[in-house]
Amino acid sequence: MSFHTTEPSPLAAYGWDEALEAEFTSYRAAGLVPARVVAVDRGSCDVITESGPARAGTRPVASPDPAAGPCTGDWAALRPGDQPELAHLLPRRTAIVRSTVSREARGQVLAANVDTVAIAVSLTDHLALGRVERLLALAWESGARPVVVLTKADALPGGTAEQEAEVAAAAPGVDVVACSATTGAGVDAVAALLGGTVVLVGPSGAGKSTLGNALLGADPETGALETGAVRERDGKGRHTTVRRDLLPMPGGGVLIDTPGLRRVGLWDAAEGLQQTFAEIQELAEGCRFGDCAHESEPGCAVLAAVEDGVLPSRRLDSYRKLMRENAWMAARGDARLRAEQRNQWKTISKAQRRMYKERGRDR
After folding, report:
1. Domain residue spans in the chain?
2. What is d(CA 299, CA 256) in angstroms, rounded to the nearest whole number?
3. What residues form the annotated binding site for GTP?
4. Cys staple from 154: which of 4, 180, 310, 327, with CB 3.0 to 4.6 Å?
5. Which CATH number is 10-89's, of 2.60.40.1180, 2.40.50.140, 2.40.10.10, 2.60.120.560?
């Protein structure tokens, strides 16, 4: 069935648009069909196509680089048939990338082609502002728009104004909204801030799946996304979400629920950090030295703001920590690339020596 009909594409509900259709012209001419990756398993994935859901192989697009292989949210060119498989991945408009859990010098894509990143923060836990800032850096770096959602607001009968203000101070330029998915209070306000492809991120026990069910119009506890209780002894939740899924929301757009993130390492997030700490970047323009590290340099406008109480010292400490981590990962990435290039040249040199040796034998 051709996309160019009076009927909208069934993929429109999953984000397919005219720009993607134009980009897909050559693939259609080759007999391929568009598909969006819903969930990825080893060697295969679930996709949604114009004809409905399908199971497809991923061997043609597999890559040893964790950031280059298929992931939830990817648009792909699918080769149909008895054994469908992904033939090509379309260029990503946005991608949420963190360092691999093993702390190798590689990035791992959590979700692709995301428009809004909803950062879930539980109001039943201590507000870990450093973790919020870390997730904000990843969200800004991805090219998507972050929103901070304070969940489980029903646990604070006295209101959430104080917590909202505290988080807002750590998230300049970002909408911060509180809600209770269990009672439904504030869920409409959250939904109004979300658009396009939305991904829910946060630690286990933050209430992501419960919120996701409410946004999907399902029962918060028994809907499409599995939920779990939080342990009383430490306030942490179980990893009830074990893979990423992509589901259409009744008001438009699609939702990606991710597993709880125990550790979120930065990966090439310099621009994301600049946006996350926008006020520090603005203050730094008044420093005496252009390369000021805001440690002990004379004429440092950032340190002066801390002394004057304009900038919280916690905020500067978090900025320094995340900047150091990002620089360290960037250095490791450069070292890995240099090592790969050396190995590649060694392989080429060996092949050339072998070729010259064989030529000498033929003479």
Report:
1. 10-89, 95-257
2. 46
3. 151-154, 202-210
4. 180
5. 2.40.50.140
Query: In percent, how much of the chain has pLDDT > 90?
Result: 66
Strand partners, 265: 99
Quick one: which H or E segment has residue 164?
Answer: helix 161-169
Please give the span between the terminal C-alpha atoms of the chain, in angstroms, as a whole number. 61
16 vs 268: which has the higher pLDDT: 16
Binding-site residues for Zn(2+): 287, 292, 294, 300
Task: List residues forming the annotated binding site.
Answer: 151-154, 202-210, 287, 292, 294, 300
Q: At what angle do helices 129-142 and 161-169 cross, to 10 degrees?
A: 60
If one looks up domain 95-257 in CATH, what number appears?
Answer: 3.40.50.300
Query: Taking Cα atoms as reference points, which of 102, 146, 103, 150 lies closest to residue 125?
Result: 150
Count of Cβ atoms closer than 10 Å to residue 316 Cβ: 19
Q: pLDDT tens digit string along 233-269?
A: 444 444 444 456 788 898 889 999 877 666 788 888 9
Each residue of 56-72: pLDDT tens digit?
999 999 988 888 999 99
Residues 6+ apart with CB under 8 A from 89: 61, 70, 74, 75, 76, 77
Amino acid code (one letter) for 252? G
